[in-house]
Every structure is written in C-alpha cells, then in structure tokens.
TrEMBL record:
PANTHER family: RWD DOMAIN-CONTAINING PROTEIN
Name of encoding gene: RWDD1
Domain of life: Eukaryota
Name of the protein in question: RWD domain-containing protein 1
Boundaries of every RWD domain copy: 10-117
InterPro entries on file: GIR2-like, RWD_dom, UBQ-conjugating_enzyme/RWD, ZC3H15/TMA46_C
Signal peptide: none
Amino acid sequence: MTDYKEEQRNEIEALESIYSNELKIVSDDPEYSFTVDIKTESLKHDPDDYMAVSLKFTYVPTYPDEAPIMEIAESENLSDQDMEELVEFLQSKTEENLGMVMVYTLVSEASEWLNKKLVTSSSEKKEAEERRIREAEEEERNRFDGVRVTVESFMSWKAKFDQEVAELKKLQAKDEVVSKKLTGRELFEKDRSLVDSDLQFLQDEGEVKVDESLFQELDDLELEEEDEEDIPS
C-alpha cells in the first residue's frame, strides 16, 4: 500500500532544499499547501522587462497518483490570457507525470515557459512599436505628397504672392482716397451751415443796396490826386 503522506513529506523536504528562498509553506494540515516563486531573467535591452509568478500547490490525499491543485497566486507582467495559457500548460504536464512526485518538474516547466513567453512578448512589442513608427512616418509623408517645394515652385509662388500684395495695396489706397473725397450729400449731412449760408447769399442778392457815399468819397480822392500833380515842385 502506498504511503502518500511519506512521499509528500519527502518531496517537501527536497523542495525546501532546492528552493530555500522561493518556497513558502502555507499549511501542512490536513494537506500540504505551499507557494513557489518563479521569475525570469531580465532582458539585456530592458532590465524592467521580465515575468514572474507565484505558483500555489495543494496536495490531495492521494498525490502523486492524483494531480495536485494548482493556481497562480500572484503574477507580474502577465496578462490574464498568459496566466490561463500557463495553467493549461501545467495541467497537461501533470497528466504526463501522474504516479510520480512532480512539483519540481512542474516548476521547471513553468520557468522555461515563462522565459520563452517573455522573449516572444518582447519581440511582439518591438515589432508593434516599429510598425507604429513606420505608419506614423508614412502618414507624415503622405501629408506632404504633391506639395514638395523646389526653387522653381517657390519663385512662382512668391511672384504670385507679391502680385496679390500689390493689388491689395492699390485697393487700400483707393479706399483711402474715396473715404477722403466727400460727395455733396455727405457735405450736406456733415455741415448744414453750408446750405444755410448759400440760401442767405441768394436772398441778399435779390435786394442789393448801393451806398452812394462810397462813390462820392472816390470822386474826392481822384480830385485830390489831380491837384497834387498841378503843384510845381
């Protein structure tokens, strides 16, 4: 008869020796429950690019003839899909190792899977970034297609621009002259006294009066001048 408890204790002792810093016993009653931390090596080009998981194993009474309960207690830099794929992968490995203590094998398989996944994920990220840059550059080039500037095209544009500026200045000068030259109606609206003075002049012209004394004074002035000429020097 198989002594499952003995096999389980022996495996725990071996695991504690191998994973002295990574293994933590959660419980030993009624069955052993423990975690093993796994972390990939960081990639050379990005020290922060790594993956890590904490696998939790719980023995069942008939382990190793029956697979242990496995779950991911904690993870770093893994998506939900990554964790599902890892659990499915490990479950397939338990089927291959039934009847033998298998935690060391499962941890080793998980570590290798994570390293491969990290390399694949890093490559996919790099390709996605390169594709994004190419698309951005292509979009930027497309914005300027058909409007590339040459010396000839610039000189042609400048001549047209100068002509438009000259025409605009002419229009502005014309507007200034027109604004300064007021029409009769504008003069009327601007200064009503001009009309009043014209009307007054016309009224006065119809009643012209002559002051005869002015003519008498002129005659006297002429006589005095003649007398002065007759006086001998």
